[in-house]
Amino acid sequence: MLTDRPVICDYAKFRAKKSEELSVLLAQTPSVFLIVCTKCFHRMRDEDAGCPEVRNALAGCATTIAGCLEVDFLCNREKTSVLLATHPCGSSTAGVFSCGVGVQVVADLLPDTCVLALADSIPHGGNATTDVAYHGVSLRPWQCAACGQCRLQDTAGICPVVECAKSLVNGPCGGAKNGMCEVHESLPCAWERIYARLSAQGRQFSPPVQVHNCASFSPEKKASLSAEVRQKRREGFPGGLYPPDEKERAGSLSLARFPDPQVAVVFLSQHAGAPARPLVKKGDRVKAGQEIAETAAAISAAVHAPIPGVVAEISERFHPSLLTPAPAVIIEHDGSGASVSLPPMTGWRSLDPATLRQRVRQAGIVGLGGAMFPSDVKLNPPRPVDTLIINGCECEPILSADNLTMVECADDLLDGAEMLRHILGVTRCLIAVEENKPRACAVLTERLAGRDDISVVPVKTKYPQGAERMLVLRLLGRRIPEGKLPCDAGAVVFNVSTAVAVCRAVRDGLPLIERALTVAGALVKNPANLIVKIGTPFADLLRAHGADEESRLLMGGPMMGVAQPSWSGAVIKGTTGLCAVPRPAVIPSEERDCIKCGRCVDACPMDLVPSRYAFHGKRQEWAQMQRHGVLSCIECGCCEYICSAKIALVSLIRKAKIHARHLTAKP
Amino acid sequence: MLVTSLRSPDQLRRFLKGGCAVICGGCREVFLPEAEITALLAEVRSDLAGITRADYLCEDEWAAAWRDHSQPGISRAGAVVVFSCGVGVQSVAALLPSLPVIPGCDTHYLNGFQGLTPQDADCRQCGQCFLNLTGAVCPLTACAKGLLNGPCGGAKNGTCEVNPVLPCGWERIWKRLSDAGKERFRSCEPQVRDYRKILAELDRRKEQA
Q1: Any chain B CB within 8 A of the CB of A138?
Q2: Hey, are the CB atoms on A147 and B107 less than 8 Å from each other?
């Protein structure tokens, strides 16, 4: 039975050739440059440096080692080519220590170098007669030979192609002895197992005679599928994913206004930077739009009362982004419609940028895409910029509030874009919209007909296209240097909702007290796109739209959203949506071990090696994570989404960043 | 690496009636015919005992979590139809020995290696790497016949007689080899593929386990 077969717990996929073999191989070579794949070789350990196994294997040879390049996943052609370009091979002979794919990749990238294979791949087939394929990413006892004509329905889920040493598909050969294969006595006869399981189910093996069709999948088809997958991965920017977008349900609905809450919970920290300083105290009467907390530092944002009423208290409430209690002003609605606003600036075109920027600050506007960085600071870039990018990608699945903002508030959006452009003093303005939002594209293109100062750029749908770095790269072909900001590449990026908020703050004098968001997900009965007052409790929104109490609640989208432990949060400026989705069967954990499948490396749009974070994070080696570039991570969540070992990579990365900042803050 | 395609819907409908479907999302975003599966399931929705989702069913720990999580649907079902690669079907079948477990997809082979991304290059994991003799072009995967000691002679204009789309692997090898490499190839013993290396691996793993 299967349980008698060993579970493969050895992750090695290749091993050094015997030293006699290596001596012969290297006899004619005075020096060799080592290229070592540090994955799939052994379990990950603290330092792979020097790979003692390779050096030991070469110890008996007279050949000198001209240098050593260690690569995580040599088989990942794109990343290997970058490394080989920056680390030139120091010899006319390269000795490659990897599986057969790695050797071929190196040989292809270094056509003029003699490439030697120093290792043999370890066979995982367990069967001599089939084309070896190892499907599924975990190293478990089940294999699939990818024959292209699955028979498992007739064979009780036991594959005869793989499990039978002779790959017989029409019944046993008759050569088994005591249930064991005649080819190899440690292999149980697959057909006996198939019969046993079928009879336990009261079934019989009775399909028509099976013929193995070796041509069921042509090499052309294989090659084109391979190429298609690679091309999609490289499209626009390297890495990224195509999660199902699930935007159909909410995306077709228009924006509706959600009623004012009875009680608003207005946090003093709804932005990056210093929390705002309260201007009101318990018992004060406030009007909607009145400033209730002022900026406390250069990087900070003012907070305004979203509803008219009385300040019931200023106390700590559960913050949906910080996930800890944080100070908030609690306002009870008084039923009146009292409101205040700032003086409208209808003639804004003639005002100087500094005045407009001051207005953006007064109105408490922050990046509404989720990052919540104070917009006035972003509007004062330390370096000259030449392009304003309005980000309408909304690449998160499920969310569609930005999409509808573009459709329904197109005029405000375009006015806002002009104001931002005026403040920044740039001429070029691009509005990036993903192709899965054809309505938004059409509306904006129609409004902009005949104008060449602002243009709509449809971009291919891919996650995380909406991240600033991916957007600047896709639109301008400029790479933002590591650890730098978009302005270092001459661009400033604003979310569409932020542009609308800027327009309303300048033209109408309205401070930021409401925002558009999506309430959706598989466990929401009536999904909606809503204009909601800041401070509205999540529970109000979720009950009104029939969210399931048992669901997993995310503030934001399913990829980058912050998982909420309860419904006790309230809308903040960065709440792009509330998604109630089914709880997954397996929750990612920080404790699990990496199985080195390499998918995170392939999916990471920032060219990082997230599997390193899984290893060092579990051991709390924060400095090592920093050494492997954790500060460049944009926390898009691609690695965690694709992780086959279900490791909570994003939370490990966030911890490492906190520790890294702590380390650098200390002298 | 793998790619899957939907099996004949007519056959699947028979099992989906009163059956429970599970869609494996592990490799979904590039390889699973998600749209076709969704359409098929929507069509037979009223007859289904349940539609469930899982990630990486190939990993038995996750497959067990899926089974516990989806118990209500599975307990009502007369069969489980698994939309995944062949590994997922087998791991589910091992967990549910008393239920017919039906593959929803056919699995096709893509070049690559053990769970990594698709590649141009391929490795047959023969356990006795021949690349040193063959200019780093693998004779097992590049030659349709897997010949180890030279071309079969059947190539026409540099393309394989088995499939004219394939370039002759041995012609590629010969072009790639340096003069010294050609000399080394000529002077070495004939290569013999040792299939025991594959089965011997079973023993090695068993010893370790």
Answers
A1: yes
A2: yes
Neighbouring C-alpha atoms within 13 Å toward the C-beta of A214: 8
Instruction: Give the pLDDT of residue A27.
Output: 81
A527-541, A577-591, B128-142, B143-157: least confident range: B128-142
Report CA-CA distances (Å) from A351 to A73, A384, A493, A500, B48. 56, 20, 22, 19, 65
Q: Please tell me whether residues A205 and A354 are part of one structural domain.
A: no
Inter-chain residue contact B85 with A142, CB threshold 8 Å? no
Which chain A residue shows the shortest CA-CA distance from B58? A136
Does A206 fall in a domain?
yes
List residues bridging with A647 in a β-sheet.
Answer: A589
Q: How many domains does chain A have?
A: 3
* Extended beta strands in A241-395, E state: 255-257, 263-267, 277-278, 285-286, 291-294, 303-304, 309-318, 325-333, 387-392
What ipTM does this complex have? 0.79
A244 touches chain B (CB under 8 A): yes
N-to-C CA span, chain A:
62
pLDDT higher than 50, residue A2: no
- Amino acid at site B208: Q
Name the token pair of A394: 């909304």
Flag whether residue A32 sits within 8 Å of chain B, measured between CB atoms: no
Classify residue A364 by burial, with Cβ atoms within 10 Å: 0-12, 13-18, 19+: buried
Q: Which residue of B has its CA nearest to A1?
A: B94
Taken in order of first residue, the domains within chain B and their CATH numbers are: 2-133+192-208 (3.40.50)
| Cross-chain CB nearest to A146 (options B109, B128, B199) | B109
Report pLDDT digits (tens) over A547-575: 999 999 999 999 999 999 999 999 999 99
A503 shares its domain with A607: no
**A148 and A22 together in one domain:** yes
More confident call, A624 vs A142 = A624
Region of A291 please: left (phi>0), alpha (psi -120 to 50) or beta: beta
Whether the predicted model's global pTM rises above the 0.90 cut? no
Q: How far apart are CA A244 and CA A655, in angstroms?
A: 29
Residues from chain A contacting residue B66 (CB–CB below 8 Å): 585-586
What pLDDT does residue A90 have?
Answer: 77
Is residue A297 included in any domain, yes or no?
A: no
Distance separating alpha carbons of residues A483 and A75, to the nearest angstrom: 28
Identify the top-confidence range among A212-221, A307-316, A584-593, A622-631.
A307-316
Domain that holds residue A424: 348-507
